[in-house]
Design goal:
Shape: globular
Number of strands: 14
Helix content: 25-40%
Largest sheet: 8 strands, mixed
Strand content: 15-25%
């Protein structure tokens, strides 16, 4: 069986997509180690999770975002991992997202490792976050995209997190890669099929939640505008759980607005998979809307939180006019709303207050196709 070195530039504490693919390979007899960049040095340096070893690199404290110190930290992480793996090369380097591809390309060239690339997102669009109309940032994003595609084309297998629905209107990341003459297989961010406590219809109070990475404040400006349109007696509690580049700004905004609107606010820090069920216990609607200007939303991003919420019977409100809205509508996972339409969002949130939905598709066929493609490389 193969030795696999997965690489990811977060602490994998948790990263559901990374852990899901690692555990799937481990359950099928492969030896998997995750090399993770623990930027805050807040997680154990080494642990075993269902047969997968997680090695977290503590090389200093670095924030998330486009800061020079962050960039230097990523360079140091890539250099350290490359050096470590070069001393004892694995059979396969499995790169999660484009900011790890440099490692895989070097190991493939120097040690003959098989290179797998898993594209969770369009990494070059992250440069646009916060300032999507900046000409400078557009130029940087274009340069990053060109470099990333050159590296992606050196991969032996490319996996991505979305593809157009059969007979659907909107593209996914698979179609983006296809336009660049790169073949890929789709493995969506769907949770494991396990028994979970399902949503209970609220009697009086209800809760709207955002559970995941907190990266952009515009989403929360839209949310509070929508909640202000509801009668005071029908306004929900708000729950926010997770960390990210915009956490401080989002918390400040919500603390101010919750006080003004008379809404109870529940803030949680980063969480792991074991605490997700308790976080979901009192959630009635998941809010999963994002500014579309950055590009990856219209090009096919599918929010993990939409699938996670559905597995607990909780409906989501997502962006319309893109793949996530189409999937949400087709599978009955909630409602899709036009971005920046606070009236439509307000009505959608209230309409889903007592809705209980079911996730029917857990991606088993996608996992099987992934395993077949992986084992076909050896």
């Amino acid at each position: 069986m193969a030795s696999v070195a997965m690489v990811v530039t977060n602490a994998c504490s948790p990263d559901p997509r990374v852990l899901r693919s690692a555990k799937l390979l481990a359950k099928n007899g492969h030896n998997v180690t995750i090399h993770a960049f623990d930027r805050t040095q807040g997680s154990p340096m080494s642990e075993i999770d269902d047969g997968v070893r997680i090695m977290r690199y503590h090389i200093g404290v670095f924030s998330y975002g486009a800061k020079w110190k962050t960039v230097s930290g990523l360079r140091a992480f890539r250099k350290t991992v490359t050096s470590s793996l070069a001393n004892n090369p694995p059979d396969c380097v499995y790169c999660h997202d484009a900011d790890t591809l440099e490692i895989g390309v070097k190991l493939k060239s120097k040690a003959g490792c098989i290179l797998i690339f898993d594209m969770h997102d369009l990494q070059h669009t992250w440069v646009m976050m916060g300032r999507p109309n900046s000409l400078v940032r557009r130029a940087i994003a274009h340069r990053l995209e060109k470099r990333n595609l050159q590296r992606i084309k050196k991969s032996d297998l490319v996996i991505t997190s979305s593809g157009a629905a059969k007979g659907g209107m909107f593209p996914g990341f698979r179609e983006y890669l296809s336009e660049q003459k790169v073949d890929s297989i789709v493995v969506e961010n769907r949770p494991e099929e396990v028994e979970r406590r399902q949503k209970v219809i609220p009697n009086t109070e209800w809760t709207v939640a955002y559970i995941g990475r907190v990266r952009e404040i515009k989403s929360f400006h839209l949310l509070t505008k929508a909640l202000e349109l509801l009668p005071k007696s029908e306004r929900p509690n708000i729950k926010i759980a997770g960390d990210g580049t915009a956490t401080e700004d989002v918390h400040t905004h919500l603390l101010n607005e919750s006080s003004r609107l008379g809404i109870h606010l529940n803030l949680h820090p980063a969480f792991d998979a074991s605490t997700l069920p308790s976080l979901m216990e009192d959630v009635d609607v998941m809010f999963a809307m994002y500014p579309p200007e950055r590009g990856n939303i219209k090009q096919g991003a599918l929010p993990v939180k939409m699938f996670d919420a559905a597995s607990f019977g909780i409906p989501s409100i997502v962006n319309s006019d893109c793949l996530m809205g189409e999937v949400c509508t087709n599978e009955g996972l909630g409602l899709a709303v036009k971005w920046d339409d606070s009236e439509a969002l307000s009505a959608a949130l209230l309409s889903q207050r007592e809705a209980v939905i079911a996730l029917e598709e857990f991606g088993k066929e996608q996992h099987s196709a992934f395993l077949n493609a992986f084992e076909g490389l050896f």
